[in-house]
Amino acid sequence: MMYKLDHILICLDLSEMDDSLIRYSNFLMENFKPKSVTFLHVIKSYEIPPDMVAAFPHLDQPLTEIVKDELEEKIEAHFIQKNEIQTKIIVLEGSTTDNIVRYARENNITFTLMGKKIGYEGRGGIVRKVISIIPSSVLLISETTQPRIEHVLVRMDFSKMSALALKMALRLQELTGAKVSCQHVYKLPLKYFPVSSPENDRKLMDHIQKHGRKEYQKFMKKQELDPGKIPCTTSLDPENDEAHILYKQALTTGADMIIIGSKIKSELADIIIDSTSEKLASAEKNLPVLIIKDRKQTIGFLKALFK
């Protein structure tokens, strides 16, 4: 399966972050050449008090239209219009998370762009909620992200989700010419640590490296890919912080994007994203992170959740 990136959703929040997102969307349009792009903003439903309407007659206009006019000005200033791409500006009212997820599901969105700082004030950030349940893949960028994809680092754990992440990386390589590399982070069983010593650590690392190479070759053979063309390094994770190791590896090798297949699980009424994806989505990790979703699996969870 090769990824189709034909319907793109850009989530705006009327902050300065919007300018960065709109400018980055130009890069996506140029390289992905989608069929449609939608700029979406969600406002919380509330009624404007009558005395405010009297003081500001223009507020008699529906709030969604006022916000849409403001968005149109921003988009006109920063978005390089592509005549062949259908462009929509949508303003909805209600829950931000619910509306973004519902719109993505009902409009077959295949790729969503969000800012890393959207809704990250306080607990229960909007970004964290959205990436847990949205069926599309999600790219998170910061204000300082440059519009380029020259080297992507794929989180490799030899799972189905790593296979999906690698396929997306190869799709981006096809579109942009980017270099692709992989990083496998090996976690130690807790029972090992009491016998840790410099000599044992060296022996263990040698064993891990050999095991990692063997697993990678087996994985790549299953994907019908040449492991010699896509390098994969293995690192030890002694402190259970895979996100930090991936981020450090990306900085060290000059990667400008981390791609991670999102492993989700259902727990009571919640869909929980794995902690590595969530940590990479945090604002302090400045590199863009592309979170790959299994669309069928996520929609299945959503149907179970909202039935």
CATH level-1 class of the largest domain: Alpha Beta
End-to-end span in angstroms? 29 Å
Structural shape = elongated
Mind telling me the C-alpha Rg?
21 Å
Instruction: Report the sheet with the most strands, covering strand number, pairing sense and barrel closure.
Output: 10 strands, mixed
Percent of residues in helices comes to 40-55%
| Spatial strand arrangement across the major sheet | 3-2-1-4-5-12-9-6-7-8
- Identify the CATH architecture of the largest domain: 3-Layer(aba) Sandwich
Structural class: alpha/beta
Task: Give the count of structural domains.
Answer: 2
Give the total of beta strands: 12
Q: What name goes with the CATH superfamily of the largest domain?
A: HUPs
Question: What is the count of helical runs?
Answer: 10
Poorly predicted runs are: 119-124
The percent range for strand residues is 15-25%
Q: Secondary-structure element sequence?
A: EHEHHEHEHEEHEHEHEEEHEH
Averaged pLDDT: 84
Enter the CATH topology name of the largest domain: Rossmann fold
Characterise the protein shown here.
This protein is of the alpha/beta class and about 300 residues long. The chain folds into 2 domains: about 1-145, Rossmann fold (3-Layer(aba) Sandwich); about 150-305, Rossmann fold (3-Layer(aba) Sandwich). The chain has 10 helices and 12 strands. The protein has helices spanning about 15-30, 50-55, 65-80, 95-105, 125-135, 160-175, 200-220, 240-255, 275-280, 295-305; strands at about 5-10, 35-45, 85-95, 110-115, 135-140, 150-155, 180-185, 230-235, 255-260, 265, 270-275, 290. A 10-stranded mixed beta sheet has the order 3-2-1-4-5-12-9-6-7-8, with helices on both faces. A two-stranded antiparallel ribbon has the order 10-11. Strand 6 (about 150-155), helix 6 (about 160-175) and strand 7 form a beta-alpha-beta unit. Helix 4 (about 95-105) packs parallel to helix 5. The longest helix is centred in the C-terminal third of the chain and has 25 residues, at about 200-220. The radius of gyration is 21 Å and the shape is elongated. The model is unreliable at about 120-125 (pLDDT under 50).
